[in-house]
Amino acid sequence: MTWRRAICFAALVCSVAAIPVDNNVEGEPEVECGPNSITVNFNTRNPFEGHVYVKGLYDQAGCRSDEGGRQVAGIELPFDSCNTARTRSLNPKGVFVSTTVVISFHPQFVTKVDRAYRIQCFYMESDKTVSTQIEVSDLTTAFQTQVVPMPVCKYEILDGGPSGQPIQFATIGQQVYHKWTCDSETTDTFCAVVHSCTVDDGNGDTVQILNEEGCALDKFLLNNLEYPTDLMAGQEAHVYKYADRSQLFYQCQISITIKDPGSECARPTCSEPQGFGAVKQAGAGGAAPAAAAAPAPAPAAAAAPKAAAATIAQAAPAAAPAVAAASPAAAVPRANLAQLRLLRKKRSFGENEGILDVRVEINTLDIIEGANPTAPEAAALVSEEESRRRIPSSNGICLTPIGFASFLGIGTVVATALSATIFYVARPTSHKH
């Protein structure tokens, strides 16, 4: 009976230890932007017994507040201590003062009920002059901003259609669906346009299949994209590959713009693509443009760049496509044409636009007569194709010299044994009288 009570007591102790701290922050923090310091106060549900400190400076007493026993916890941070950051702003003109404050409800440890807050005060510069020529000091203004994060985009190749599963291995001619999606924390805020798509074999042989406006160049490779939603694009296609190459690396750019309230997202106006219009951007005789570098071999979600202008300056392709001769700009010299494209892109890209790079990889198999490999079999075949070219099977039997000699030896022994057996059975038997 004693051991049963001990087990129950131990179970009760474990259960109690797993209960979180019975306290949390009520409402939003109260921030006071003073002339020389920032004060942050938190209203708690129960009396506070923890710490309020600047993130990363818990061991510095001046950057930590240990007041307890009340339902209010706070800390005052001078501008010249505790790693308080100051950033100058030109438009609007002023200074941002920011820091990160952590409120911890446990006296010794950080638990799941604790919270960290990014505190930011904006001090606007304003020079005012009165008739007595006395300069008035700057006004202290609390500037509250809400930062909307940029969408996170990805590029996938799905099996069959829009609802298929992402694939990494496929055969030539297999129907797939190219899908570009962007996830945003807000709704009806952003627009996405896919453009500047290239495909390469990982060795610098790059072909452009979507131009800078987002229009398809070769109907046999990829048709003009469809946009089911503001942040989604896709199109069906069939798998193809380079000669003697099994891997294909796709890279595209996605332009993210802010959507005007009550309006629709602008989409590319494209004509029907012609056949064999893809633009080869790199080859044995020329170098690829700077924006068409070989992509990484794994898909990854793209983050918003600091400045979109870094990816805008894309040079004209090294080799002009055959269909370019039919365009009105064909008579313009190549250097002038590149400048016109750059100016057009600068006019179309606003200050509120960001460009994301997305990539995806697929391994492609040759057509094999009478074969329909599954995904694991396709992966094994791709690995074998990387080491040597596959030879079509025939109806004959191939033997190595050692195997052929072994076959002859075994055949000779079997023939000798068979002859001896027949001779022994067929010999006349002698009868004794």
Structure, explained:
The chain is an alpha+beta fold. It has 4 helices and 18 strands. It has helices at 2-17, 334-348, 375-387, 401-426; strands at 25-33, 37-44, 51-54, 64-65, 72-78, 85-90, 93-104, 115-124, 152-159, 169-171, 175-183, 190-200, 206-210, 226-229, 232-238, 247-258, 279-280, 354-365. The chain has a 6-stranded mixed β-sheet with strand order 10-18-16-12-13-17, with helices on one face. Residues 1-17, 284-350 and 389-394 have low confidence and may be disordered.
What structural keywords apply?
30% strand, elongated, five-stranded antiparallel β-sheet, single chain, 18 strands, disordered N terminus, 4 helices, 433 residues, alpha+beta, six-stranded mixed β-sheet
> What is the number of beta strands?
18
Averaged pLDDT: 74
Shape: elongated
How many helix segments? Answer: 4
| C-alpha end-to-end distance | 101 Å
Poorly predicted runs are 1-17, 284-350, 389-394
